[in-house]
Structure formats: C-alpha cells, structure tokens
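Message: I would love a firmer grasp of how sequence relates to backbone shape in proteins. Thank you; the sequence and its tokens follow:
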Amino acid sequence: MRDARRRADSAAAAAGVRVTGVQSIDLDPSSPSSTSPAAGAPSTGVTAPKPGVGHAPIPTPVNPGKQEVDATVDVVVLVGP
C-alpha cells in the first residue's frame, strides 16, 4: 500500500493535482465480485456437509516455514487541487 500511495502521489503531481483520499480498494480484482454462480450457470445441487455430522473433523495440516505470496490490488484514489 505504501508503494501504491507513492505511485499515486507521483502521478498526481505530474498532472498538477494531489491525492486527497482513497475511493476504493479491491483486494482481488481478478475474481468476480459475487460468489454466486454466473447467470444461466447450471446448479450442481451439491451442498457442503455439516461439520461433525457423520464424520470426525479432518485436522488442517500446519507446517513451519515461510511462503511467498504475490497479490494484485486495485486502489482508486481521489485527487484535487
């Protein structure tokens, strides 16, 4: 986010304005904004099982170490004089 602000400030200065705020932040611009199926998409009719009903919970493995993550974030800034 610091780099986004620096880049926005630089672009605004080149245009003779300044950044006055943030209008929106999209943390995952590549995914649809809705988790529902697309219009016209067939339903699978499958529902997720209820936890603890009929089966023992499966533990989530957690391994020590580091993992690098790259992310794309869209930030729309507000500018003014």
Residues 1-29+73-81 form one domain.
